[in-house]
């Protein structure tokens, strides 16, 4: 049978609840479609940090390296500063494994209520393509003269030509596979005068290589407004690391719930394992209660299977999610229901098994 080795990192908070449901559905898909998943579990989290002073062992990335893919829950917990926990576990994977594409679908599923009155599923169906290794998330900067009145902090945004071109190319290639063939660029070249004009230049140069693709661009401020007012304008939206981050919470919010939004952190060359995780975080406000929505995690599992080449199985999982939502199946509180995290995982696993 086809075999894949999956590194499983539940992480913190609701990650510990969503990941088991993700695995339940992946297991159902593996049985149904005749492949095998070998799971290696890594219980790295903020608890590890409190015990050892590190989010993961020094050779953590080397331990993950042999995996075909990484299946991650969420990282971050009160008591450990977020920049320590995230830069100790999540960000090192994205950067160390050169997962330079963050791919985040935003779809209004039939049966899910959008906060935007009158919008239909056909009108909210786009991808955010987020640059995932550089930009505003740089390690260049620092704090000086701490505690004095000369104290200052600075952080550089870094756009490399290679890094900019490869994410733009990915966005255009993705658009070429879609009926509308449109790419929107998120910029802010009116206020940020080195990096963003450069981004615009590289965008224009890439657009010239794809004459079939329609393009437009908006400054990030008005783009946020347009996501709310005209979500139907968008097909593929490409942005820098920070702009893509912001848009990929706003997109799922207009599509009904952050709890169902999936994401893929992709190294397209497959030199390194890619990583699959929901868009949401560890949700300390609802963690431990068994009420969080596992769909973002489960859908991320489908994206993982598609990346591994198991397209049929991936489609079956997405189909099961669509059917459950459209036909009034069990739903969690964020979608107005009373079902538990486990109820949803079981319902979706059964649906996949039943085909
Ligand atoms: P969050 O996504 O954890 O939560 C935001 C809100 O959405 C909360 O009210 C939460 O209850 C709700 N929510 C999130 N996921 C849900 C789900 N599956 N079902 C139902 N409701 C859900 O964002 P936050 O509060 O900004 O961050 C909490 C922690 O998670 C922080 O430490 C943050 O740094 C971290 N974080 C991690 C990741 C990641 O690991 N990729 C992503 C975002 C935030
Ligand atoms: C995300 C998260 C992370 C990010 C945080 C937790 C560092 O918000 O995956 O969107 O900003 O990339
Ligand atoms: Mn985010």
From TrEMBL:
PROSITE patterns to which the protein is assigned, alphabetical: IDH_IMDH
Cofactor or coenzyme needed: K(+); Mg(2+); Mn(2+)
GO molecular function terms listed in the Swiss-Prot or TrEMBL record: D-malate dehydrogenase (decarboxylating) (NAD+) activity; magnesium ion binding; NAD binding; tartrate decarboxylase activity; tartrate dehydrogenase activity
SUPFAM superfamilies, per the entry: Isocitrate/Isopropylmalate dehydrogenase-like
Matching SMART domains: Iso_dh
Domain of life where this protein originates: Bacteria
Pfam families found in the cross-reference section: Iso_dh
Positions of the Isopropylmalate dehydrogenase-like domain: 5-348
E.C. number: 1.1.1.83, 1.1.1.93, 4.1.1.73
Keywords for this protein: Manganese, Metal-binding, NAD, Oxidoreductase
Reactions catalysed according to its record: (2R,3R)-tartrate + H(+) = (R)-glycerate + CO2; tartrate + NAD(+) = 2-hydroxy-3-oxosuccinate + NADH + H(+); (2R,3R)-tartrate + NAD(+) = 2-hydroxy-3-oxosuccinate + NADH + H(+); (R)-malate + NAD(+) = pyruvate + CO2 + NADH
Annotated pathway: Carbohydrate acid metabolism; tartrate degradation; 2-hydroxy-3-oxosuccinate from meso-tartrate: step 1/1; Carbohydrate acid metabolism; tartrate degradation; 2-hydroxy-3-oxosuccinate from L-tartrate: step 1/1; Carbohydrate acid metabolism; tartrate degradation; D-glycerate from L-tartrate: step 1/1
NCBIfam families: TTC
Record's function text: Has multiple catalytic activities. Apart from catalyzing the oxidation of (+)-tartrate to oxaloglycolate, also converts meso-tartrate to D-glycerate and catalyzes the oxidative decarboxylation of D-malate to pyruvate.
Entry's family note: Belongs to the isocitrate and isopropylmalate dehydrogenases family.
Protein's recorded name: D-malate dehydrogenase [decarboxylating]
Species of the source: Roseomonas acroporae
């Amino acid at each position: 049978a086809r075999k894949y080795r999956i590194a499983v990192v539940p992480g913190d908070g609701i990650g510990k609840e969503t990941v088991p449901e993700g695995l339940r559905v992946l297991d159902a898909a593996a049985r149904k479609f005749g492949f095998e998943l070998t799971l290696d579990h890594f219980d790295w989290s903020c608890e590890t940090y409190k015990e050892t002073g590190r989010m993961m062992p020094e050779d953590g990335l080397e331990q993950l390296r042999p995996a075909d893919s990484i299946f991650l829950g969420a990282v971050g917990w009160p008591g450990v500063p977020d920049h320590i926990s995230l830069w100790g576990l999540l960000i090192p994977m994205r950067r160390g494994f050169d997962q330079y594409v963050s791919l985040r679908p935003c779809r209004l599923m039939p049966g899910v209520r959008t906060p935007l009155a009158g919008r239909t599923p056909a009108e909210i169906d786009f991808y955010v393509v987020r640059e995932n290794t550089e930009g505003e998330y740089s390690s260049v900067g620092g704090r000086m003269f701490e505690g004095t009145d000369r104290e200052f902090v600075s952080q550089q945004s870094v756009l490399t030509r290679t890094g900019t071109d490869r994410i733009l190319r990915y966005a255009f290639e993705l658009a070429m596979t879609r009926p509308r063939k449109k790419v929107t660029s998120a910029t802010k070249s009116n206020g940020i005068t080195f990096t963003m004009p450069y981004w615009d230049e590289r965008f224009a140069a890439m657009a010239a290589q794809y004459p079939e693709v329609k393009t437009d661009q908006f400054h990030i401020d008005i783009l946020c407004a347009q996501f709310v007012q005209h979500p139907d304008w968008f097909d593929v939206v490409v942005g820098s690391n920070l702009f893509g981050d912001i848009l990929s919470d706003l997109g799922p919010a207009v599509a009904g719930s952050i709890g169902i939004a999936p994401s893929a952190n992709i190294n397209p060359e497959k030199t390194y394992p890619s990583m699959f995780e929901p868009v949401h975080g560890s949700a300390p406000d609802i963690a431990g209660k068994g009420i969080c929505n596992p769909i973002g995690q489960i859908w991320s599992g489908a994206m993982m299977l598609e990346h591994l080449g198991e397209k049929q199985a991936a489609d079956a999982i997405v189909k099961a999610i669509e059917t459950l939502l459209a036909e009034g199946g069990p739903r969690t509180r964020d979608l107005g229901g009373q079902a538990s995290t486990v109820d949803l995982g079981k319902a979706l696993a059964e649906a996949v098994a039943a085909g």
